[in-house]
Amino acid sequence: MELRPLRLEPGDDLRRALEAACAESGTAAFVVSGIGSLTRARLRLAAANGETELSGPLEILTLAGSLSADGAHLHMSVADAQGRVCGGHVGYGNQVRTTAEVLVAVLPDWQLTREVDAATGYKELVIRPTSST
């Protein structure tokens, strides 16, 4: 495992930037931690069909998930200026306000993919060792 710190810039789309970082390296990874600020957040709340958009400024309190060639599965909690907290599945359109500082654990000996799981009906994580493992 290799740990890689990343800093995302103002205006970056949080999810797209993390997916791009994984695609560039061509490896599987997990987001270990993330903090920063957003001008807006787009989260899918538990069991909801659509996403909820929150207007900022917002502070990222937690960020975690998996990154693969098939995309990202990320969860995040954010707080607004009154300290109200909301969390859920990270969609596209989470715009970085000043910074997002993310620690990514790269797993060069593993391949992560997403495949439809008959039990859940959703694309779920499938973990396989690479040929060198």
TrEMBL record:
Keyword annotations: DNA-binding
PROSITE patterns per UniProt: PPC
Top-rank taxon: Bacteria
GO MF term list: DNA binding
PPC domain span: 1-128
PANTHER family for the chain: DNA-BINDING PROTEIN, PROTEIN, PUTATIVE-RELATED
Protein name (database record): DNA-binding protein
Biological source species: Roseateles amylovorans
